[in-house]
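Handoff note, outgoing to incoming analyst
You'll be picking up this chain. Sequence as last confirmed:
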Amino acid sequence: MSLVECLQFCDKRDLVLAREELRASLCLGTKAHALGRLKGAEDLRNLLAHSQQHLVKGSSWEELIGLVEWAESVVHTSDQRGR
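Most recent structure output, in case you need it:
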């Protein structure tokens, strides 16, 4: 298991936000845009992990689907860059 696999989502978020070249290579946009999207992904992860609230609380299904599609594209970009 690598060190990165041991980090919390919020720690990974902070590392990505701190490295401009990493944000650029993952096509995350500005630091503010990346923070908003990554915070949304973290909130969704927490809702899924703890299953105590409705998934679209304070949001809509369209926004949730958009967030998931964005996260998929970031993972795909990361996978392509890692090869």
